[in-house]
Known about the structure:
By secondary structure, this protein is mainly α. The protein is built from 14 helices and two strands, in the order αααααααααααααββα. The chain has one domain (2-331). Helix content is 80%, strand content 1%. α1 packs across α9 (161-183). It is globular. It starts with a helix and ends with a helix.
Amino acid sequence: MIYVVILFLLVSVYLYCLLGGADFGAGIVEFFSNKESKQRTRRLVTNAMAPIWEANHMWLIITIVILFNAFPPIYSQISISLYIPLILLLLGIVFRGTAFTFRHYDAVKDASQEVYSRTFEYSSVFVTFFFGLTLGAVISGKMMVNPTGFAEGYVSPWFNLFSVSIGIFLVALFGFLASVFLIGDSTDEALVKEFVKKSKRANIATVLTGGLVFLTSYIEKVNFANNFLTNPLSIALIAAATLSLPVLWKILDGAHKWLSRVVAGAQLLFILGAFYAVYFPTIVRFKDAKDLTLLNSHAPEITLSYLGWALILGSLIIFPSLYYLLKVFKIEKEEDAKLTK
């Protein structure tokens, strides 16, 4: 049953990066939009996200629940050693969600809307960046079980060039995903062309910041780049992600909305797959102790069994419910479009 639980964990991480990433990326796209297109972008983001933005965070909740119940040593170590970036990350999520809610549902549209929008945009970048800092700390091998001081134990693991570069990479990646996904939510041809350009620019930024991650791993003496470049599967997956770039750009030029989403999702799968290929089953790398993996830090078999069956049965409810939610929203948008004609 442990492999069933691990499968759900990996799938939840992927879906959160894909759907939650596009969610956070919408705010990032707003943040980097120029004055001429900012208002149009804000309206598009609000209409696209309003019915589903809360559902996207479900995958993060599932990931945390799995770690807490199935791999308690991993959960406790991350929550203790990285409590500073995690607290800041959670505060950012609260500010972001609150700002978006007030912006969308506030009955009075006045100057406060600009405050809500700015808060939403800045917190989207902030939260994504701190997700990257946290990920960098977990995989860099700088975390310590027995630190000699506060800075060494609770600051240095995440406050370094390597972690910062991953934060920047995630900002570019999530912005790219959002740009591609938002193409399919616009009926304005001029706005579609604008988001095609944004998608290409964000795609280039993702490639460049990915290179920055490799560079900083050498500077910080983290084995990240070496591990990637010596693993045949990771090399194959990164090659697949690279070769799919011209395919995606061709699809974007043809304005194939759903096909572009599928290819963008496949690129994310290739990137995460390369990451899994290098690090699986390791989760936390230590500087002064044995690494924590999914196979040496799991809960008792009875716990895994109950959790595994709960995840299997829950998925039979979650996936049809999400499909129904998206279907209802699509019907409502089509009806609204007819009324406005």
